[in-house]
Amino acid sequence: MKVPYSWLKEYVDIDVSAQELMDKLFGCGFEVEEMIDLGAEVSRVVVGEVLSCEKVEGTHLAICQVNCGEYGNPVQIVTGAPNVYAGMHTPAALDNSRLPGGVVIKAKPLHGIPSSGMLCSGEELGLNDDLYPGAEVYGLMDLPKDTVPGADIREVVGLNDYIFDISITSNRPDCQSILGIAREVAAVLGKELKMPATDYTCSEAKDPDLKITVEAPDLCPRYLGHYVRNIQVGPSPRWMRRNLALCGLRGISNVVDITNYVLLEIGQPMHAFDMEQLQEKQIVVRRAKDGEKIQTLDEKEFTLNPDNLVICDGNRPVALAGIMGGLNSEITGNTTQLLFEAAKFARDNVRHTSRALGQSSDSSARFERGISEYTTELGMARALHLIQELGCGEITSSAFDCSAGAPREGKRFTASLSRINSILGIEVPAEEVLSILERLNFKVIRDGDILDVTAPRYREDIEVGDPDLAEEIIREYGYDHVVPTFLKDAQVTSGGKNPEQQRKDRVKRIFCAEGYHEISTLAFYADSDLDALRIPEDAPERNVLRILNPISANLSIMRPLLAPSMLNIVVENLKRGNEDGRVFEMSNIYVPRGENELPDERLHLGIAAFGDAEDFFTVKGTVEALGEALGTAFTVERAQDVPYLHPGIAAYILCEGERIGVFGKLANEVTAELKLHKDSKSNHKIFLGEIDYTLMMNHVAASFRYRPISPFAPVIRDLALTVTEEITCGALMQEIAKACKQVTDVELFDIYRGEQIGAGKKSMAFKIRFESEEKALAPEDVDRFVKKILGNLKFKLGAEIR
Amino acid sequence: MEQRIRALREQMEQRLGQVDSKEKLAAFWQEYLGKKGSIAELMKGLGAVSKEDRPAMGKVINEFKAQAEARYKALNEKMEQLELAARNRLEAVDITLPAQKRPLGGLHPLTIVKDEMINVFAGMGFEIFEGPEVEDDDHNFTRLNVPKDHPSRDMQDTFYLGGDLLLRTQTSGGQIRVMDLEKPPIKVLVPGRVFRSDSDATHSPMFHQMEGLVVDKHITLCDLQGLLDKFVKQIFDADVKTRLRPSYFPFTEPSVEVDVSCFECGGKGCSLCKHTGWIEVLGGGVVHPHVLENCGIDPKEYSGIAFGIGIERITMLKYGINNIGLLFENDLRFLKQFKE
User: Which end of chain B is less packed: N or C, by CB atoms within 10 Å?
Assistant: First the structure.
């Protein structure tokens, strides 16, 4: 919120510099995000008195001798301004002076005539008529004749001012105004607050027909209306326009400016209806009818429903409550009588309507955060006072106050000095506590440790007593009084990750050891990401949790699979010229359950490897390493029905017979759609995998016990077997291992195809390890085992020894 | 005989000088020490020596034999050494050739920093709790003292999933879930992903937070600063100081922002701290009594402190990362830089 330093000074005698004030505000909870120095860009510009001006023949220029006081008398300055005259007081930018926009003025000849600076217009100083009347005149600024030559122009035109841009936390709606901040400034500086005048007198006049009804007191707990007539619309005074301008508002007319002024000064959004436009002299505050329409001041039309609160006249909506007035009852230059509105509207209703319609304003911003009824009363009184002060209308006796009956005093509660101190952990002296609370306008009656406290009416955020007061006290007393203690009274607890959490870390480390980099991707993507992976419309993965208000359509569903995210990262890396890589992610996928029921968040492991060096078996190596490192074993089963994987180069991962995941090469048809460079080999070697972490870990024993090592040396035998092409290596190995319990390891070391063994056949050579825990195996023993193995293989797989 | 031995000895020394290979050394052995060698011959010739001279002569022959054997042994060793040296020379490699790499993977920087943070708090007795990412309104807002009409719901732009479900905007909901399960003393950390509809150079719609909660008797604001003091010293630098300043969160009262003195410039002012000497790192406060009550904990008996730390913020500060987007682009050139 923008708060001009000079405006604050109207309420508090500030005796510290702007910088010091900024630090004080920061310390008590009001961060000044920016302190704008209005005159920061202006230097060496002074009041100049034009002593003489002499036209240069054949040009538009005039040579002026200018009295610049201590900076030179006279100084010769050439100007092209048409309105210059001898005796004029006007801003003179001296040699080496600076103007807004980084403009530097130097002494240099103009048309060969020496000129030691420049005479300035208001615009060149960054001024407008609101900030300084007459600043927008065409040509040079014509300053009053009582300005002193040589005086700093910033002092003369009010550029010696600051604007604080203050961020207000949402618990302090009472500070959304100049007065609100002034109250805080007065408290922190220990100064008196000078309240703005709110007195006014009403005429005898009354309009007996005028009626105000609030039909929805739940959405409008307070509604004040006051009839003002004999309006003379005209410009508002200089001081009002300047203050509005400092806050970024342009002056419009006295009546409109008053509503804006009260909004900024008091924090009460005001509205003024043109009485002559109000049909049947009625105001009805009610919920809109379904389909009812309103056109707001900015000429936008909205269709409403009963969730929206409207202010109506006898027949139709004339304002969108708390958000914006209607075009049909707008104050114009012809307005002669008006109805002022100051109200409190329910903050969530204003917020919802504002969001739903996409319409917001300075008013709605304040109502959404909350307005106290104190502010409503003060705002109306201040507006009426200003009408009187500006002499632009007659305040009638037709005043309305519709109230839902909220109490008209501040919250009263009991607090305790010792409890406040026990929240803070320090002893704040009792006198200090009382003094701080008094400065903040709390009424306190002390009885020993007990405080009987009444909060100011505008502090609706105060609700639980001791903690609220603790916060008020420490922010005024100063956080530097807090003495760090390290949980001195807390009990000792054991900490750290539990075994389940530690196992997640272990799994991540296994992937790291396999050369995989962990990635972190967004938990949402789009239906089109599933389309890209050719996930069928009726697949279970299509049952997804949808975000109702996504940032963009690209990020609208909670992911049911990690694979699309993994692929996106691979593609992104390839596009950036990273030709190979291995990445993994351990993250949730989301499976919807019933309505209002939290979804099943299943932890998945996503795997991706790409680049010329990768193939199915490098990824398989990682999968097997994972199984081995977890003390279990994974087997594979051909996966031909995974839509995004190559039907011939993909496998389900099985653990104890259960499918726990899948991996394989990205399907050719998916790869083709990626639109990657065709000439790079890496682009066609993308492997993806996805494992259900929970399913996997179900097969991992929480603890393990050591198995004795056989004291007897193992015996190794090599076997070369000839089989038909369709017999898989896995089938052979499984049979070999099954055939006899002494087999502890089987390893393939060669595959041969050739004329010697005939077409449609292959020879596979295995290294088989035999071990017994009972005895040293004799060659005859092993011969027997081998015979048994060969028998089985021949019977089941038709394998012949080569 | 003596003369013969002397001659043989001299001859042997000469022959030794010519031995420069294993083959010649073997020939040398045959010639002197073999079964038909000179020394064996001498031994056979001993029978012809007179009985009284025989012992002395035998001794001389034996000395000769010992000498020959010693010479042989020494030469053999030398030969073996030469042979080994030659083999080693042959096998030598250019050690500056590129290594055969078996590339190491690594953890994401956010994981590295998260674990580092967890370790600091684990040492102080904090357990780790992970709550759900899809939350209900009750846990994410209402029971955290953010009723339906509360303006602070606007502080965070929430993703809604229909009904009461939403994506958690803060890990603070974990406080509620922990206090539903456990009673004081509680010291818990809730790390996790959170979601807000915000996206620019400093915001990602998904980011990571770590909530901390202590509930016990006599826990104060001073404890919050003491605890966080220790944390920032371990995470950043032993000289880093903390500063509290007032702030607002619905679930704590008083609420504070915690700044650390700038570890880049030591507080003198630099671009990192925007010339203020301080860097905002986290928020916290004394747990609001409503929150304790909402979880069945008597605020008259127990008090608590809570804090929330943005893991991205700490990660970016630690590594000098200036755009949050880098953390989610997952460019391998970026990821490969981070070591535990």
Answer: C
